[in-house]
Design goal:
By secondary structure, this protein is an alpha+beta fold. It has helices at about 1-10, 10-60, 105, 140-210, 215-245, 255, 280-290, 340-345, 350-360; strands spanning about 75-80, 85-90, 110-115, 120-125, 130-135, 250, 265, 275, 295-305, 305-315, 360-365, 370-380. It has a 5-stranded antiparallel sheet. The chain has a 5-stranded mixed sheet with strand order 7-9-10-12-11. The model is unreliable at about 335-340 (pLDDT under 50).
Amino acid sequence: MVAEWWRRRSLRARLTLTATALLAAGLAAGGVLLVGTVRAVSLAALDREAVQAGRDVAALVAAGQVPDPLPVAGERLVQVVDTQGRVVAASPAADRLVPMVPVAEIRAGGPRYADEGRTRVVTVPVGTDTVVVGVGVTDVRENLRLVRNALLAAAPLLLAGVAALCWVIAGRSLRPVEQARRRQRAFVADAAHELRNPLASLRTQLEVAQRGGTVRLDDLFAEAERLSHLVDDLLLLARLDDAGPVRSDPVPVADLVADLAVPVTLAVPDGLRVPGDLRRVLANLVDNAVRHAASRVDVSLTATGGEMVVVVTDDGPGIEVGDRERVFERFTRLDDGRARDGGGAGLGLAIVRDLVRGHGGTVTLADAGPGVRAEVRVPL
């Protein structure tokens, strides 16, 4: 029952409960140790005072100068007892007939309690007699009670404060983990959804072929190609999430744009070399621009201030200001009604952002009037 209840608690709650329980155990052990130490120290101080008082009286007994009553300071009880257990002399408040401790224990040595535990008694032998000194322990017990009450009052407040602090700290520490977990679950769900469409299409066409129907091989290849590209994109995103972009050797910009078979206007300076894995950044930006352009796409690469600046501009319908950040999220497609084959899976700009961030750069979208201006800045 307890184990089941514990499993149902959130990680944040379990961390808070564990930390609070450990602190409570520590406070309990510390409180017991503190009370025990205070008690031992207080009684040791009483014993030292009583022994010193007993030695002072013993000096008088040894010198044969025993006044009656015995001179004492404070509320101490002092008796001089002979070997027969008779009280030879006593302080004003002490019993003059009965020793404070039994005769058999008078010379046993060591402190002990008398008067039902209300008096701490020590003995100091002198010749054949014994000086018996008793000190009340009421003050010590009162001090111990105050210490215990203070601990009992402070401990719940301290535990509540620590629990609240642990709850806040655990929440802040686990927030990135929780965000990542939600993002991973959403990613898996979206990936499954996107993979299901081409797989379902392939399955349908294969079933038609199995039943003797006519199936165009071009359609099968198109679905297989789309599925292959989608799997490649998913693997790349998984790699970026795990370890960041794989740094590659710098290559000439001409090599990056050589395989872009799209109708674009290029403005590239000679001799500029950039990280090779930015080929995918440029390809995705150009592909996105070509998909939405009305008549032209312009691409420029420049190097200034230690940065490479890539600008891709199209003359398409543009993107609303409120959507310019959202389009970088994975599986985001603003045009829900467009064709599946022409629209892509909504991963191109997400890959661009992750690759650029991995290189310490930035990517932004702005209005091109008409169209969109995508700008990438990456340190060289």
